[in-house]
Design brief:
The complex is a heterodimer of chains A (335) and B (511). Chain A contains 14 helices and two strands, in the order H-H-E-E-H-H-H-H-H-H-H-H-H-H-H-H. With 335 residues, chain A is mainly alpha-helical. A two-stranded antiparallel ribbon of chain A has the order 1-2. In chain A, a hairpin with a 7-residue loop joins strand 1 and strand 2. In chain A, helix 2 crosses helix 14, helix 4 runs parallel beside helix 8 and helix 9 crosses helix 11. Chain A starts with 12 loop residues before the first helix and ends in a 6-residue tail after the last helix. With 511 residues, chain B is an alpha/beta fold. In chain B, the strands form five sheets. In chain B, strands 1, 4, 5, 8, 16 and 17 form a six-stranded mixed sheet that branches. In chain B, a hairpin with a 2-residue loop joins strand 6 and strand 7. The chains are: A mainly alpha (335), B alpha/beta (511). The interface between A and B is large, with 42 and 48 residues.
């Protein structure tokens, strides 16, 4: 991300750097006017991004790193407490492990299921049938619906006694489930809802599918491969770059799940709480929701900052693990 | 939350106007309680004619009058009866609008200055009046050089924190319980201004529970604007169907349980069809309502100790657990909630008894005018005291405001006697000055309001714990739920809640 310096075509980065160094160090040695001009304009063009990054990303990040080692309620000056916030998270907070569990549970199911569903849909939508584009649009539309509106609709669908989902379950002879009113089923409900929004992933897989050379399938057909063999031996392996991308992005997204829980917890959970609720028995108290509550409800900005950095580390480690294993299963199409 | 969700409906208002004019003064008086009694009364009222008719029919029928009466009488009588049946839950008369007057501040600032007034809550629109804006407009008219900008829904903790940190707080903030702010030194003391006199905020003139939350370390820090408390609503039709007499309101918690048992209906699967009573609907479940009703204070300010495990608090939880188990467990109550699909539970007509604040009267009139209901005081548990906590909004000055003197002048007006009773009457809450509530002709004409007023003097503030939000969210509420779901005994749950909340209080005090 952010590597594109954009409009001015510049030589390879290595040379670019040396030139830059020369420019600052040795004024005497002449650089071509054109080159200097290019560098100047290059910096001007990337400055919005650079400034935005420095002011609105890097500075707040470093500030939060500092605050994570302080007792800070925003209203009074921060007080240095060393690692106390981190120790508190692991040893004293009665809800911290619950939030980690809730979040991992959600990520563990929603990410792989999301990938699976999206691939199946992409395969179906890739079939050359009449009205293909209409079907594609239909599956993409949910991602356009604002999360808040969609969540409220899903809360109705999940209603224990009047919801369409339970009506459907009962119609086929299955028992109704308490969904958002049950500590056991509230997270599965969230996961099901998350699958509704796979439209973006489907588009990415569709693009991936278009990239697979037709010649491979032709060769396979000549060799007598059936549909299943073609899918597992050609399509899936050649989709692994997209799967890899979705896995990383999906995992990061799942670790940060907030809005849906914020809304669902409040609507489903019912009576106990203070406006913001987190589902029955706090079963929808996800990590970022708890982080938010600490920062803005409990006036514990320092602790919330520590939580944010822990989340950052967890995400980083998880991503690195996936990256490390990727060489074994991601196939970049050199045949 | 002590929410006051009001919706102003034009049509409704017009309808009421017409109805009011048509019914005339006597009808208005009778309208106060929308109950069967009222029905009878309206019948009488509307028919001096009818009475004559009846008499003629009854007494002089047979011989003399036949010719005269035949055409007019029977038709009219049937018409009247139908009309009465429809009108059953009579809307209450609108309060007369007595706008507050704003004092002219002298000397006025030579140049116009602007005060920013943030509200944690949204606009309060009621019978086409934007109540808070109206009061601000009156002030601005009287004081063109101290212009107040009223900004609803921006006084959330997120924004207040950011503005205070940035050194640009609003001059005035209307907030939910200011406890968290006060303990963190985020508010200006109002005491220096109060010491100068010329204001109505004296302990002797204000409800004791209200005063308690306005003071901190002997200094005035916040002024409560329009207070409200919980009361018990009950559905008169469901009462009658269950063979209960709506004229005998339940007084004790035992009465409530008895009535609820008769009203409560489940289907073949044990799902609740008609809910007799739920201790966890609306505000009944928050800020330790039942613990307070049982007599627990939940906080010991002298020793800085959280006392969630007071005997009264444990008894309250014990009672809740027993109540839940009597009807198939806590889960059944939770599942009932979402069958309402966004409807007001009491307005749905499927709830027999319901604990909430006085604003519900307005919701009923605006949205559910066909529900025939009455109100009474919070049920008193055995050995308990009834009542519960005081809700509403508090006007404070966040630290760092530049126009404190002018802000105080506005505060004196906005939280003063006239503005309190104006907003209280129009928005259905109460002035913090008992004397004004007692004098309000409109309150006195409304039987629905009276129980709340009776309870007000014995209500307590929301526990003044320095980390109150944290204490309830992470300790009290989860532990109550664990007990309700049978994972802990009530005693164990409250002991653990106390331990957790106290740890955070200690950490806070140490810092």
């Amino acid at each position: 991300m952010g590597r594109g310096t954009g409009l001015v075509p510049s030589p390879r980065p290595v040379r670019h750097e040396t030139l830059e160094a020369k420019m600052t160090k040795t004024k005497g040695k002449r650089m071509s006017r054109v080159m200097r001009d290019r560098i100047k304009w290059g910096f001007i063009f990337i400055s919005p991004w650079v400034l935005g990054f420095l002011l609105f990303i890097l500075y707040p990040m470093l500030a939060s790193l500092y605050y994570s080692f302080t007792d800070y309620d925003v209203l009074r000056p921060a007080r240095w407490v060393g690692a106390e916030n981190y120790i508190y998270f692991f040893t004293k907070d009665n809800l911290s492990y619950l939030t980690v569990y809730n979040t991992l549970y959600f990520a563990f199911f929603s990410v792989p299921l999301g990938i699976l569903v999206a691939i199946i849909l992409a395969l179906l939508l890739n079939a050359k049938v009449k009205g293909q584009s209409v079907f594609r649009a239909i599956f993409f539309i949910p991602t356009v619906v604002p999360v808040v509106a969609a969540t409220i609709l899903w809360v109705w669908l999940f209603s224990t006694r009047n919801g369409l989902i339970n009506m459907a379950l009962e119609a086929v002879g299955l028992p109704a489930v308490a969904w958002l009113n049950s500590p056991t089923w509230s997270k599965p409900a969230m996961i099901i809802m998350s699958l509704w929004g796979v439209g973006t992933s489907v588009v990415i897989y569709l693009a991936g599918l278009q990239d697979i050379p037709v010649s491979l399938y032709e060769a396979a057909v000549i060799d007598g491969a059936n549909w299943w063999q073609q899918t597992t031996r050609i399509t899936i392996p050649l989709l692994t770059p997209q799967i890899f991308f979705q896995l990383v992005i999906g995992l990061i997204g799942a670790f940060q799940v907030f809005t849906q829980a914020f809304i669902m917890g409040g609507t489903g959970g019912g009576a106990l709480g203070m406006g913001t609720e987190a589902g029955p028995s706090n079963s929808l108290l996800f990590y970022t929701l708890y982080l938010y509550l600490n920062a803005f409800r409990f006036f514990r900005m320092g602790y919330a900052s520590a939580m944010a950095w822990l989340l950052f580390l967890i995400t980083l480690v998880a991503t690195l693990i996936i990256l490390r294993t990727s060489s074994r299963w991601v196939f970049y199409g050199r045949l | 939350m002590s929410a006051q969700s009001h919706k102003g409906l034009k049509t409704r208002r017009e309808f009421l106007r017409l109805a009011g004019i048509a019914a005339g003064a006597t009808a208005l008086a009778a309208c106060a309680t929308p109950t069967p009694q009222v029905i009878k009364e309206t019948v009488v009222v509307e028919k001096p004619v009818e009475k004559v008719v009846k008499e003629t029919v009854a007494v002089e029928v047979t011989k003399v009058v036949e010719k005269v009466v035949k055409e007019t009488v029977p038709v009219e009588v049937t018409k009247v009866v139908e009309k009465v049946a429809v009108v059953t839950p009579t809307p209450y008369p609108l309060p007369p609008v007595k706008l507050p007057t704003a004092p002219v501040v002298t000397p006025a600032p030579p140049q116009p200055i602007q005060l920013f007034f943030w509200d944690w809550y949204g606009r309060l629109v009621w019978h086409n009046q934007d109540l808070k804006q109206v009061q601000v407009d009156i002030w601005n008219q009287a004081n063109p050089n101290i212009l107040v900008s009223y900004l609803p829904s921006v006084g959330t903790k997120e924004k207040v924190l950011a503005s205070v940190a940035a050194g640009t707080p609003p001059d005035l903030l209307l907030t939910d319980p200011p406890t968290d702010y006060v303990y963190r030194g985020a508010l200006e003391s109002l005491q220096p201004f109060a010491d100068q006199g010329g204001h109505p905020f004296f302990k002797k003139d204000i409800y004791p529970g209200v005063w308690e939350a306005m003071e901190f370390n002997g200094q005035l820090y916040a002024v409560h604007k329009v207070v409200n408390n919980a009361g018990l609503y009950y559905n008169a039709d469901l009462f009658r169907q269950a063979g209960l007499d709506p004229d005998k309101p339940p007084k004790t918690l035992a009465d409530v349980e008895e009535a609820a048992a008769k009203i409560h209906k489940t289907d073949s699967k044990g799902n609740i069809e008609i809910l007799g009573f739920s201790p966890w609907l609306n505000i009944a479940g928050i800020w330790g309502t039942w613990a307070q009703a049982f007599g627990a204070k939940l906080w010991d300010p002298d020793n800085k100790k959280v006392t969630f495990d007071e005997p009264a608090s444990i008894r309250a939880l014990q009672w809740q657990v027993e109540y839940a188990n009597k009807y198939g467990g806590f889960q059944k109550f939770m599942e009932f909630n979402d069958t309402l699909a966004g409807m007001d539970p009491f307005g749905s007509g499927r709830v027999g008894l319901y604990v909430t604040g006085p604003w519900q009267i307005g919701i009923m009139q605006d949205t559910y005018p066909n529900i025939n209901y009455r109100t009474t005081t919070m049920p008193v548990p055995e050995g308990g005291r009834g009542g519960a906590w005081l809700g509403g909004s508090w006007l404070v000055m966040p630290k760092g405001g530049k126009r404190r003197k002018e802000a105080w002048e506005f505060l004196k007006y906005y939280c003063g006697r006239e503005a309190q009773i104006y907003e209280a009457e129009q928005g259905i809450g109460f002035s913090i000055f008992p004397e004004d509530n007692a004098k309000s002709e409109w309150f006195n004409s409304l039987d629905l309001i009276q129980p709340f007023l009776q309870d007000l003097p014995k209500c307590w503030p929301i526990p003044l714990i320095p980390t109150v939000s944290h204490a309830f969210f992470t300790a009290f509420n989860p532990m109550v739920e664990e007990a309700l779901r049978g994972k802990r005994t009530p005693e164990d749950a409250m002991k653990e809640a106390t331990r957790l909340a106290q740890a955070e209080v200690d950490r806070f005090i140490k810092g």
